[in-house]
Amino acid sequence: MTAVNQHFLELQGSYLFSEIAKRRTKYMEQNPNADVISLGIGDVTRGLPPAVIEAMHKAVDEMVNVGTFKGYGPEQGYTFLTDAIIAGDYRTRGIELGNDEVFVSDGSKCDVGNIQEIFSTSSVVAVQDPVYPVYVDTNVMAGRAGSFNSELGRYEKIVYLDCSAENQFKPSLPTEKVDLIYLCYPNNPTGMTLTKDELKVWVDYAIENDCIILFDSAYEAFITEENVPHSIYEIEGARQVAIEFRSFSKTAGFTGIRCAYTVVPKELKGKDANGNQVSINELWNRRHTTKFNGVSYVTQKGAAAIYSPEGRAQIQELVQYYMTNAAMIRDGLREIGLTVFGGVNAPYIWLKTPEGFNSWSFFDHLLSEANIVGTPGVGFGQCGEGYFRLTAFGSRENTERAIERIKKLSI
Ligand code: PLP
Questions:
Q1: Residue among 111, 114, 216, 249 to mutate when testing ligand 1 (max atoms within 8 A of CB)
Q2: What integer pLDDT is reported at residue 409 of this predicted model?
Q3: What is the DSSP string of 310-336?
Q4: Is the CB of 382 under 6 A from ligand 1?
Q5: Whole-structure pTM value
Q6: Which domain of life, per UniProt (predicted)?
Q7: Could you tell me the domains of the chain?
Q8: Which pLDDT tens digit goes with each residue over 137-147?
């Protein structure tokens, strides 16, 4: 028999959302008439913006004619899209980027998962706890995590940055030498953010301590507060130390269409085995062009349409729709005395489970008593125990019905 990659066997249990699906299916089998509302998985529910649909239709028509047909495109993305990204998402905030610093892909999940490949397997990785599980699991697969300590519920070689209500889900700086720091703001799952001054502390730390920040801002479009940075490059010096990940998934309803991008500035450097400087941008370009053949032309045309005046207005409406849901969930939970975080700059509401419940027992209680599916906080890490995530991505009607049901719960 052929030996397998042993590190894959170090992955823990089933992925959070498959366990949720399993419990939901079991409940439905036992209660076939239950009207279950899902505020669990972070998938969008509204249709694509009309400007996107129109652009995609046009692009499909172009595919019919020999003169306008498109085959393989540039692996890094067409310049019509990277130009639009740079002008729309960065120049407006005083940030200049080159087209060769933006890499279009088919999703941030792949990007945040793949990025670790270009770093040494001996790199020390720091993650927030609770954490988007992809950061940890992809480092486990690569052999950077060490063995799993089941008593602590943690991998021995990963540095966990604890986040809790006590620190408002803003972790302290690492106390040991790390090489890669994953930061996710606005945060999934907690829905919390850092201010510019707070993010500056991380950038300064990375500069002083020779580490790289992997900044996942998949939820940037949901920021409503003035002092919250939309890009890490708003912070001076960040180009030397940060890679930024953005996605059209939540911003524009692209979870099924698939399009995202990663920014890797030219100033960002690593070192080879002899200590010589290596361009991270060049390495990522090599990785991307070797393993990826580009996002479809039709999809990229759809993504570029988001930056037109109509597209912009339509995605703002979309974001507003979900953020109204978020406010309703926040207010509803507060009304019944629950402690609630997030939901102001992010479509996630993170609540402290009521007295007597842990994350999974609250999941079961909510499912059986209110027929609502949420996400147990402990699924995102040890520090998530005692918390629970609800998403604002449902329809207005389902969100209203869910809140009415929650208000009637005995907790
Ligand atoms: N990053 C975070 C923090 C997410 O929550 C998600 C999706 O839920 C992703 C990345 C993945 O986004 P995409 O749909 O672009 O793969």
A1: 249
A2: 85
A3: HHHHHHHHHHHHHHHHHHHHHHHHHHT
A4: no
A5: 0.97
A6: Bacteria
A7: 7-47+310-407 (3.90.1150.10), 53-308 (3.40.640.10)
A8: 999 999 999 99
